[in-house]
Amino acid sequence: MAGNALVRSYNDNIRPLLDAVDRLRHLKVTDEGIQLPTIVVVGDQSSGKSSVLESLAGISLPRGQGICTRVPLVMRLQGDPDATEPLLHLEYRSKTVETTEAGITEAINEATVEIAGAGKGISDAPITLVVKKKGVPDLTLVDLPGITRVAVHGQPEDIYEQISHTIMGYIAPKESIILNVLSATVDFPTCESIRMSQKVDPLGERTLAVVTKSDKAPEGLLEKVTVDDVRIGLGYVCVRNRVGDETYEQARDEEKRLFNLHPLLSQIDKSMTGIPVLAHRLTQIQASIIAKCLPDIVKKIDEKLHRSMSDLNGMPQKLSNRADALKAILHIFKVLRESLEMSLIKGEYGEFPDEQSLHGAARIYEMISSYSSELPSNCPTTDDPFLMEEVRVLEEAKGIWLPNFLPRSAFCVLLKRKVGTISQKPHEVINAVWDYVENLTIQILLRHLQNYPQIQSLSQRVVHNLITKLSAKSYEFVMNMIEMELCSDYTSNPDYMKRWTEFMEKQGHFMEAIEDHSKPTKVSLEAFGEVEVGHLRAHADVAEQAFDIRMRLTAYWKSVVLRLVDGVALHILHSIKNMVESQLEVELINELVGPEMAGVDRMLEESPATATKRDRLKKSVELLRQSKGIVANVMDRIVVEGGK
Ligand code: GDP
Ligand code: MG
């Protein structure tokens, strides 16, 4: 296991990992949404957080009234055998300030004022304090503002919400280890810091408790840390911090004596007492959490870098003159046209394989075939008894001429009626198709213009106006088509004669049933099944012609429907092709480039959002590249060590 190998050879191997993580923290990769393994110190106010850090670092930190921590303090402790005295510096807002043990309080206060203002407000921008000292453990910890429930004088009203928000931001990520500082003088379950850590780590799996002020409340401490009624998964370490003006060394001696000699405290297992134990536990935990998290961090950095880079590449160049803007605009028109050709004409959907609504050719085919299936395949009839509609029309068409001529006018009247019943259908499909094409064109257009919001609405209007025009033309076309069907009856389709002749073979049989009253009144006809003809005996004079007309209509109807479907389909395809291949581009150029160059000039005014986005992406790419370099170095190490 990489983790164990790392823990064993701690000194050689952990430092570089820790450095890498610290450098990532310094680069603010957390701003990119990458969480770093972090030990976060939380505790109620005056629980002794700063004192614990002080003990770990062997230095003095700001303390007392008004100078409690108001911003997160990242403490990087580095053991340095060559440092004869502690070397300290602060890093914040991309500056580095050297300081000394005596000056640290003032330096931190100054930095705090610079970050969080002079009042008592808090901020979540951290200060980093680097401490290089002989004998300190290699540890990075974050000290957070203490949890106050009530705003003290001069603090903002919502101080509790502000602090909880900051603390939650640090302890919620699963990469964080929570170091919960509890004062031995209080009842643990009442601690606000326990409530908070339980919210994000209910089983305490990543929570370690430090119990401070053991010297002040030794009674019952053994029981408190053994019973563990607040669920601290990583265990308890009881400590005694510096009291009053003690030096660091004195404080450690006092602590040792306390846990060795105190009648109650000496009963607590030695693996649970003293700052050195705490330091050791923390370095171990830190090593394993870093080893555990790094591979994932590397993966995330790669992913984010990849995404930021492709976003950046997808961004338009900043346009500085009309010529460039014109080039860009013409390029967009060209790719728009290609996309529309693919979708609406060729039916190739590689650009948006999963967006069915943009698969133009397929959707239009569906609309046309559903239109075709809505047109009745047989000539519509009324509910009247068989042939009575024809009979009535024929009776009105009687004139002074020989009775055995089929009056063509009767046929035309009936044909008009039948065509009239379906004359709205072609309009409906045409409207639906144009609505769809407009919608699709605008969606695809907006994709190509996503970086140029300044010309989106103008371009959309162009599409809308063009399609309104084309749709009006289609309306006219369909009107004409219907009018042609209404005004004449013609087809060169040989099927018509063939079907009519077949139908007419039954005419003799049909007439027999009408004229010979002894015959049954039901006749079986291929196209209509079994029909009742008894009622036609009263209209025997026109029955023969009625039969003929019905057969003609029936045979002819197929041709009418075929023309209405084919005509509409061809018209739609033709119109869309024209639109995609030339009209749209012409209109766009007229409106956006045209004599005024309105669109071109707008292209030059880059929206602030685009500029900001480009800057942000550039920074992000730069930062992630650096981060990648940092982790690449240490990952080699993990792989090598892990393989041992
Ligand atoms: P913070 O607000 O959590 O940072 O708490 P501080 O570290 O400022 O400590 C609050 C007070 O408790 C200070 O007066 C410290 O001297 C005191 N204190 C902290 N730890 C101990 C300890 O182990 N023993 C004693 N006796 N006092 C302590
Ligand atoms: Mg403090």
TrEMBL record:
Residue span, GED domain: 546-639
InterPro entries attached to this UniProt entry: Dynamin, Dynamin_GTPase, Dynamin_N, Dynamin_stalk, G_DYNAMIN_dom, GED, GED_dom, P-loop_NTPase
PROSITE patterns cross-referenced by the UniProt entry: G_DYNAMIN_2, GED
Keywords associated with the record: GTP-binding, Nucleotide-binding
Any single Gene Ontology cellular-component annotation: membrane
Gene Ontology MF terms: GTP binding; GTPase activity; microtubule binding
Domain Dynamin-type G: 33-295
SUPFAM superfamilies xrefs: P-loop containing nucleoside triphosphate hydrolases
Entry annotated with the keyword GTP-binding: yes
Pfam families: Dynamin_M, Dynamin_N, GED
CDD domains xref list: DLP_1 (cd08771)
Domain of life of the organism encoding this protein: Eukaryota
Entry protein name: Dynamin-related protein 4C-like protein
